[in-house]
Write a structure and sequence with these properties.
Blueprint (H helix, E strand, L loop, with lengths): L1 H8 L16 H14 L3 E13 L2 E7 L6 E7 H5 L10 E11 L4 E11 L2 H18 L17 E5 L4 H13 L5 E5 L7 H13 L6 E6 L13 H9 L4 E5 L8 H4 L2 E2 L3 H8 L3 H34 L2 H4 L1 H44 L1 H6 L4 E4 L24 E6 L2 E6 L10
Parallel strand pairs: 3-5, 6-7, 6-8, 8-9, 9-10
Antiparallel strand pairs: 1-2, 1-4, 2-3, 4-5, 11-12, 12-13
Helix pairs in contact: 5-9, 6-7
């Protein structure tokens, strides 16, 4: 007994403590796995029934993911299947309550279906509308996010089904409208569980293509289940994040997948998409001709208007006889010349008169005039000096005592004299 207790106490408490020298018994691992799996809760999952086999009270089915290549086998009691109003068939879309179970003796893990319900059209539509409203609340459908389409795309990216009518409609109608149009086509699955992944991969490839100016996602009409990939949230977010404008051309006018709301342009059909992504060459040529006619008429009117203005200007007197303007200026110059000459002559005459008057005044005030009136200038003279030498003018008798030689200047000339002495000035 003591040896068993000792052996039990040496078993590692956790898987991380096990080693080649001290392993777990297989039973202990199986028990722990079963305990862990039993604690795992049940989960509702959505998928498509691709296999269904009844064997007595049990049935075995295989569920496949809606959007990916992932499948899972499960077992279900036939009484659970019998509760359905509509018998389940292969291809049915269902939601199932799955619970993982671990069989201790065989070490086998299996999935048990506790409940299963078919997904009807009403459920799908309600789910799509809930997703539509949630994405709209995020602003993914806002007009501010819409990118304008180029007037004439250099190259058009087309995502469509393999050899589909939608592809033919887009290519044919676009070529009819603009024969030089070029396409970059990506053929993908447009329904089924691989459609979303292929469409997103093609979208990203074309979005990164430097010559692709617009991307068209086109598919013909179909049942609601066939169009479900175009309401997939992952695809919607990929389109919203694309830098290249995206055109949605899914189904018919009545079809309204969520892709129509997030796309930069919604076309009612693939044919309508072809008409809206490229202009009509006939219409464009007509517009070119119309524009040329308008330009020609505008240029003609401009020339005619300017010709009329030129003729009006030429008819004016100043241009009809331009020498009149010169003659008028010539007359003005002659008149100004006459005025200036008259002004100069008047000024010269007046200045000459002033000069004569000033000369008369100067002459009247000159010493010679004084001498002409009988006055004389008496000066002291040195006998040794030549006549004409200036000496002191005698202003008082005391300057010339008796016997002083004098020089007397009168109007007719000068002579010498000798003072006889001074006398008192006579009283008036």
């Amino acid at each position: 007994m003591s040896e068993d207790v000792a052996a039990a106490t040496t078993v590692p408490g956790t898987a991380a403590e096990t080693s080649p020298e001290n392993p777990w018994p297989l039973q202990l691992l199986s028990q722990k796995l079963k305990m862990h799996i039993d604690r795992a809760p049940s989960a509702w999952v959505e998928g498509q029934v691709i296999e269904l086999n009844r064997r007595g009270t049990n049935a075995y089915l295989t569920l496949r993911d809606i959007d990916a290549e992932i499948s899972l086998p499960a077992s279900v009691w036939t009484k659970v299947l019998d509760r359905q109003d509509v018998p389940l068939e292969r291809g049915s879309r269902v939601v199932a309550l799955l619970k993982a179970e671990f069989w201790l003796k065989t070490g086998r893990l299996s999935m048990s279906v506790k409940d299963i319900r078919p997904v009807g059209l009403g459920d799908l539509l309600a789910r799509i509308e809930r997703l539509r409203h949630a994405l709209a609340a995020e602003g993914l459908f806002s007009d501010a996010r819409k990118k304008p389409l180029p007037l004439l795309p250099h190259r058009i990216g087309l995502i469509t089904g393999r050899d589909s009518d939608a592809k033919k409609d887009v290519l044919r109608n676009a070529a009819l409208r603009w024969p030089a149009v070029e396409f970059e086509v990506r053929e993908v699955a447009v329904q089924g569980n691989t459609a979303v992944a292929q469409i997103i991969a093609a979208l990203r490839e074309l979005d990164a293509h430097p010559e692709v100016d617009v991307i068209v996602i086109a598919r013909g009409g179909g049942a609601l289940e066939d169009l479900l990939p175009f309401s997939n949230e992952e695809l919607i977010r990929a389109v919203s994040g694309a830098s290249t404008p995206v055109v949605s051309a899914i189904g018919h006018e009545a079809d309204r997948p969520i892709l129509d709301d997030v796309a930069d342009l919604r076309a009612s059909t693939p044919t309508d998409a072809a008409k809206r992504i490229v202009p009509d060459v006939v219409e464009e040529l007509a517009r070119v001709r119309q524009a040329r006619d308008q330009l020609r008429r505008g240029a003609t009117r401009l020339v005619e208007r300017e010709t009329d203005r030129l003729a009006s200007l030429r008819s004016r007197p100043v241009l009809a006889s331009p020498e009149v303007m010169v003659n008028i200026r010539h007359d003005d110059i002659e008149r100004l010349k006459g005025r200036s000459q008259s002004a100069v002559t008047t000024a010269v005459v007046r200045a000459a008169d002033q000069l004569v008057h000033l000369k008369a005044q100067v002459r009247a005030l000159s010493p010679q005039k004084t001498l002409d009136r009988g006055y004389a200038v008496v000066q002291l003279a040195d006998g040794g000096q030549e006549p004409g030498t200036r000496h002191d003018v005698v202003r008082h008798p005391d300057q010339a005592p008796s016997g002083t030689p004098l020089t007397v200047r009168v109007a007719g000339g000068r002579f010498t004299a000798e003072s006889t002495g001074g006398q008192e000035p006579a009283e008036d």
